Amino acid sequence: MRIYTRKGDKGTTSLIYGSRVPKTDLRVEAYGTCDEANSMIGLALSFLDKEEWAEKEAFMDKMHRVQTILFHVGAELATPADKEVKWKLKEYYIKELEEQMDEWDKDLEMLRNFILPSGHSASSALHTARTVTRRAERTAVGLGEENVNPLVVQYLNRLSDFLFVAARYVNQKLGGTEIPLKADI
Description:
Largest sheet: 2 strands, antiparallel
Order of helices and strands: EEHHHEHHE
């Protein structure tokens, strides 16, 4: 199967079920931004290839699950509002993120001020994935409640928090330094 189709050469793309929309459509922006976040998570994980810590396999499994769910969130956003979503986000995916954050957070030093994205390269990439996820959330909100499953917005909101905690967790496990924000510049 060829990757290129030439169908998008005039500035349109297909949503799920085949309807064509401009590539500037907010729905395309929303699912494209989910794809960006997913790619950035993948980059972060690639920085962990040669790293070792006791919980690494469990961490990688959790992150791969998040990537899979995020891919499906993008597919849900790529489905026109008047069509049946083939795979719907479930509330328990949000609960999974919350439970994992609580678990990691137990061992993290309490934050007393804002921190700058820093430390291990994987941590910095996770911070970038967090900011891209926030953009995906804002774009999904822009589509309006009548066009987006509210769980999509909730998941993206929680995922950005999850990625923040994951970045801190990686820094702690791998000796990365968190740089506190200085009030005086």
